[in-house]
Amino acid sequence: MEFKSGLWQHPGMINFRTLADGHPDLAHSPLLRGALLTLHYTRTHGAIGLTKNMAFKRIFVHWAVENFDWPGKTAEEMFRYNKVINEYEFPPLEILHFLLISLRLGRHFKGEFRLTKRGTELAQAPALLFSELIPYFLLRMDHSSYARFEDRPFGTWDVWINVINVEADFGTTEAALFKIFYGEPEDWHTAGWREMAAFSSCVLRPLEWAGFLKETREDALGKQACHVFKTPLWRSALHLDSDDMLRPMPVH
């Protein structure tokens, strides 16, 4: 498939800009970083060993935990409580494994994960890999499948992304976004915490893992507040209907 410069549209009316391989904002995507590291590791070592259940073997899982630099999943924290970590205990890697197979960038062969010709090509083309990996992950995956609960929030990506585009332009909170979409001031400390969990797991977290949002959490008056900010990648990679509602960025 050939991608032309400019804009290309993904089902769901979300427009993604095609970026250059060296674009600095690509560095904001944890999922792209993990994919590139996995593809490069596989190319260097020839293959990644698989368990009988077709999961990555622990030697690679431990390497991924130490090298992915995943938000909220530091190696120090993970190894503090578990000296041995399996693929399913590191959800970003489990999801990435699924994505690489689904997109036919890798395959299972004789107990090993190996790169396809396409996977080898995209290992050297970060922007093209981003354009295939991120829309598929964000818009086609069932994000409730790897959440703590299988609750799904009501809504569509077209609405979520266009509203967040405006509301989070200069930063907002998880609770404020939830109230805008669902009209209730719920958070993790109210009776509606499961609804908040579904929204966070199926909307905000995928956007963070894709590299479009950054979340910071802090304790305030005994309660944890989650602040949400758009990353530079959001502005450089997404072209949305609500862009004309944005205020100009302040110049310092």
Features:
single chain, 252 residues, alpha+beta, Arc Repressor Mutant, subunit A, 2 domains, three-stranded antiparallel β-sheet, 10 helices, 9 strands, 44% helix, globular, disordered N terminus
Q: Could you characterize the architecture of this molecule?
A:
The chain is an alpha+beta fold and 252 residues long. Residues 1-9 have low confidence and may be disordered. The strands form three sheets. The protein has a three-stranded antiparallel β-sheet. The protein has a three-stranded antiparallel β-sheet with strand order 3-5-4. It has helices spanning 30-45, 58-67, 75-81, 91-102, 117-122, 126-140, 157-167, 174-182, 193-210, 232-237, and strands spanning 7-10, 14-17, 48-49, 106-109, 112-115, 172-173, 213-220, 223-230, 238-239. It has two domains: 23-140; 157-245, Arc Repressor Mutant, subunit A (Orthogonal Bundle), CATH 1.10.10. The radius of gyration is 19 Å and the shape is globular. The longest helix has 18 residues, at 193-210. α1 (30-45) crosses α6 (126-140).
Principal-axis shape: globular
Overall average residue pLDDT: 87
| Helix content range | 40-55%
Q: What number of structural domains do the residues give?
A: 2
Secondary-structure-derived class: alpha+beta
Tally of contiguous helical segments: 10
Beta-strand portion reads 15-25%
